[in-house]
Sequence to fold (484 residues):
Amino acid sequence: MKNAVRKINESKVDEKKFRQIGRRELLKLTPVLALGAFAVPSLQEGLLKKGLGFSDWASARLFRSGHLAPTFEDAELTPFAEFPINGYDVDDPGVIFETWTLTVSGAVKKPGDYTLAQVQALPRFRQNTRHICVEGWDVIGRFGGARLSDFLQMAGADPTARFITVSCADDYYESLDMATALHPQTLLCYEMYEQPLTRAHGAPLRLQIPTKIGYKQAKYLTDLKVSHVLDRVGYWEDQGYSWFYGL
Amino acid sequence: MSGAVIEIVQAKGKNRDGEDDALVVGRAVYEHPFVVRLCHWLNTVSLFVMVGSGLQIFRAFPSFGAKIPQKDLLHWPRAFAIGGWLGGALQWHLTFMWIYIATGLFYLGYQLFSGNYRQVLFTHRDIPGVWPMVKHYFFFAPKPPVRDAYNPLQKQAYTTAIGLGVLSVLTGLAVWKPVQFSWLAWMMGGFHYARIWHFAVMWAILFFVLGHLVMVILHGWNNFVSMVTGWKKDPEY
Fold:
């Protein structure tokens, strides 16, 4: 702004000069046109992907391992009947409970098939937490299960591994950063409202992560892989959603 | 500095004594420093994208009540939204929010450190001047004398708009990160209410924009040009 004054250091300015100054000041605003890059079809997708990636990077920095999601009184719970059932494909992929196992692979000392009884033998935690859907609605539910961190310890997961990938009976797939996987409120959930998980809510085992958006909390788990690199990100992420989406 | 005044002259050649002769044809005042103009136009673009993509996000669940049963508040047409679908709109929203925030911080920092905030900040000294301006705008009273770039009512409107901008970021943070910023969400009544506040702040900003556009049209070309070049030709003061 001092420049503008220096250019006009006399109090009298010729008409032509004044128009010249106006044009120069207008040209100085050209950086605004850089935003027009977002309107160029060939650049748009890449730029938005970069923007979303930056948001994910910032989300991971904002995540604090020791910070707990708010918990609620029983009186604040959404009635079970009003807890939405949101699957990407079918409400019941027809899991046969008798033969169901969770197949663990990757950077673990004890890979193989784990039964529900083995998961349920781990200390059980129950929590009333808020479940938030990417669409914008939220409910408060009562969830019970084993800590994913306890399960990973039982399976002898490599503590330096960076990712957890899960596959589901309905062909859904998801992945988690290790920090979130080890968070004390991240559960391998097998009950809701102190009752065994229903088929529509992801029986026999689902992820319940109060620090993540809803679509990260995969249902009907069948496979769990611990890895150093991410080869499969997630169903919704592949459609264009954020990967980290921490709350 | 904003506030510098010049006289625009038409050269008439030399007079009888051999001095430059000039005819004064107008005056101009430097109202808007470069940073203010740059931020204004950057913000015009990012606010447009934030509102458009925000409305597309809202379309995914156009309600503030329960999911079951869902009672929709309004059906916003897809044609007046940005992103095409929820995932696309989130990409726009989560990209432009950084431009929106960076522009806002740059603007606030500049205004504070340059002292230029005095031009726009509504203070107790402006209070007596509000009512005469309201009477002029809405009840056909005579126009109070113009002394500065902004009259008291304008200062009140711009100060409010800047406050709303800050609130849009804070409520947005509470919606995006209700766990990491749980204290922020708590102050707004929890995630559920933070989402309502975020929506309400958007409408308040849109209300300001509507009034702003009406006033820009009413005040004519020279006034508009001043937000482009900084110089307002033939000001009323």
